[in-house]
């Protein structure tokens, strides 16, 4: 797998991958999420390719205090080949270069596969509660989202 920064022509393949991995939600417009990411640290939007096809992604960010990972995805047919581990290593490397002291991520508690993946990489559950408040709705679909839905996405499915 080759890891590189996202390119505009990747959009359709990236959205399809996120849908295949179960990362999209009715209240999150993935194309809008991509457009927003491209306005801030676009070089930290990583795409993994195999034979030219998009097979993995990681949306990485650093706010000057903590790093964050969103949309970590590996195509199901490529799982078990350490691609997710490779993406996380690259994300960590890029964050360390920027002086990032800690990396945070969110995983839905029901996503036991992702929980186990991160534990194997040395991540542990912080003793915190995650809160969210939607400031700008992605679409009218947000109006029908459950109360308190923050639109946070988790890696993998």
Comma- or semicolon-separated keywords:
5 strands; 4 helices; 27% helix; Aminopeptidase; alpha+beta; 157 residues
Describe the structure in your own words.
With 157 residues, the protein is an alpha+beta fold. It has one domain: Aminopeptidase (3-Layer(aba) Sandwich). 27% of the residues lie in helices and 20% in strands. The protein is built from 4 helices and 5 strands, in the order βααβββαβα. Strands 1-2-3-4-5 form a 5-stranded mixed β-sheet. It is globular. The two termini are 20 Å apart. Residues 140-157 have low confidence and may be disordered.
List the SSEs and their pairings.
Layout: E1 2-5, H1 11-20, H2 30-37, E2 45-50, E3 53-62, E4 67-74, H3 83-97, E5 103-105, H4 112-120
Parallel strand pairs: 4-5
Antiparallel strand pairs: 1-2, 2-3, 3-4
User: The biggest beta sheet, please?
Assistant: 5 strands, mixed
Overall pLDDT metric:
89
The tally of domains stands at 1
The level of helicity is: 25-40%
Instruction: Give the neighbour order of strands across the main sheet.
Output: 1-2-3-4-5
Highest-level CATH class: Alpha Beta
CATH architecture designation: 3-Layer(aba) Sandwich
Task: Give me a quick take on this structure.
The protein has helices at residues 11-20, 30-37, 83-97, 112-120; strands at 2-5, 45-50, 53-62, 67-74, 103-105. The chain is of the alpha+beta class and 157 residues long.
């Amino acid at each position: 797998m080759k890891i590189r920064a996202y390119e505009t022509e990747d959009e359709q393949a990236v959205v399809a991958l996120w849908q295949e991995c179960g990362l999209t939600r009715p209240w999150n417009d993935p194309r809008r999420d991509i457009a927003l990411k491209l306005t801030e640290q676009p070089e930290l939007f990583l795409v993994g390719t195999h034979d030219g096809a998009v097979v993995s992604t990681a949306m990485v960010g650093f706010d000057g205090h903590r790093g964050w990972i969103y949309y970590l995805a590996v195509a199901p047919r490529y799982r078990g080949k350490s691609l997710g581990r490779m993406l996380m290593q690259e994300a960590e490397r890029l964050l360390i270069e920027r002086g990032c002291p800690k990396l945070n991520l969110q995983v839905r508690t029901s996503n036991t596969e992702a929980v186990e993946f991160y534990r194997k990489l040395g991540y542990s559950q912080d003793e915190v509660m995650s809160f969210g408040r939607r400031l700008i709705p992605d679409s009218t679909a947000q109006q029908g989202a459950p109360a308190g839905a923050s639109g946070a996405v988790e890696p993998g499915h």
